[in-house]
Specification:
With 327 residues, this protein is of the alpha+beta class. The chain is 32% helix and 25% strand. It has three domains: 60 residues, Orthogonal Bundle (Arc Repressor Mutant, subunit A); 204 residues, 2-Layer Sandwich (BirA Bifunctional Protein, domain 2), CATH 3.30.930; 44 residues, SH3 type barrels. Strands 3-4-5-9-8-7-6 form a seven-stranded mixed β-sheet, with helices on both faces. Strands 13-12-11-10-14 form a five-stranded antiparallel β-sheet, with no helix packed on it. It has a two-stranded antiparallel sheet with strand order 1-2. A hairpin with a 2-residue loop joins β7 and β8. The chain starts with a helix and ends in a 6-residue tail after the last strand.
Length: 327
């Protein structure tokens, strides 16, 4: 793409160096009028490009909105993000990623959408996905058993929390099994879905939704949620957020494939909210009251009840608090 070729030339130049229109024209074998047309398109995409007569062009700033070229520039992963599909609008990034996985999509392929029309969370709940959020799914083909693959959503929780801490010094907590909260309000969620038969395909699509660059008012008033923009007071670079999450996720996946499950459990527990508190677990019509003791090595919730310790898998129950606003 000519626009990307222009950007590559500009970014290759020193910070204070202009790239002449003639040099770009000769290098890309296009007219200077065509270059100017592409520069205008790049500016519309959010690139800040200075143009000076006789000097040429200089790249001053890249857009905060999702942009495939920018994301590739800041990615530091070995496999996650090796192929990127960025769409303006999708029903669901998970659904699109599953389609690609069935079409021989490769490990690490990433699907992003600037907005989703039918995003969903756990238990088929609707996930509101306005523009400005990070709606991202990754195709994973890990070297894991199906039982161990269930730990990937735990790893994703840790990866997102660590990324937000790394970028913004923000202390986000994990609400079992797959929500992230700040001061009791949801800021992100995770949904892992197996594609096909695990024994045959061993493919998982991991969806991550983070409320980033939009005001809280764009979400339904009934939702106990917040956004990164609301917390920080300014817009952030979505490309850096995505790249940092993918970097941390790749590291966490390597630990899981190396069977370092206790490390993951401890890291998750350090970030969990509600530990030691009185909670209520709902499984169908059955209600269990007890103390939230943490998670097992397999990621099951551990509940200390009057009848002893019980464990619950994420797929079968809902967790409620009797004491705090976190759940």
């Amino acid at each position: 793409m000519v626009r990307h070729d222009i950007l590559n030339l500009l970014v290759a130049a020193q910070a204070e160096e202009y790239v002449s229109g003639e040099r770009v024209s000769q290098h890309l074998n296009v007219t200077r009028a065509a270059i100017w047309k592409q520069i205008k398109v790049l500016r519309e995409e959010g690139f800040v490009i200075e143009a000076q007569t006789k000097n040429g062009y200089r790249l001053l700033q890249t857009p905060f909105a999702l942009n495939e070229w920018v994301l590739k520039q800041v990615l530091t992963t070995a496999s996650l993000g090796c192929k990127i599909n960025l769409e303006d609008e999708l029903e669901s990034t998970n659904d699109r990623a599953k389609e690609l996985a069935c079409q021989s999509g490769i490990h690490g392929q990433v699907v992003l959408a600037k907005c989703q029309n039918a995003g969903r969370g756990r238990l088929q709940r609707q996930w509101e996905s306005p523009r400005g959020g990070l709606w991202m799914s990754v195709v994973l083909r890990p070297n894991l058993s199906l039982a161990d693959a269930s730990k990937i959503t735990l790893a994703a929780s840790v990866a997102i929390v660590d990324a937000l801490d790394e970028l913004f010094k923000l202390r986000v907590g994990i609400k079992w099994p797959n929500d992230l909260v700040f001061n009791g309000q949801k800021i992100a969620g995770i949904l892992g879905e197996v594609v096909g038969e695990w024994n045959a395909v061993r493919t998982l699509v991991l969806g991550m939704g983070i409320n980033v660059n939009f005001p809280r008012e764009q979400l339904s008033a009934s939702l106990n949620a917040t956004t990164l923009q609301e917390i920080m007071g300014y817009e952030v670079d979505l490309n850096k957020v995505a790249a940092t999450i993918l970097k941390n996720l790749e590291n966490e996946l390597a630990y899981i494939e190396g069977k370092e499950f206790e490390r993951l459990r401890l890291s998750w527990s350090e970030k969990a909210v509600g530990l030691g508190e009185e909670v209520r677990v709902l499984r169908g019509e059955h209600v269990f009251d007890g103390t939230f003791k943490g998670i097992s090595i397999d990621g099951a919730l551990l509940l200390e009840t009057e009848d002893g310790e019980k464990s619950f898998s994420a797929g079968e129950v809902q967790l409620r608090s009797k004491m705090t606003e976190y759940f």
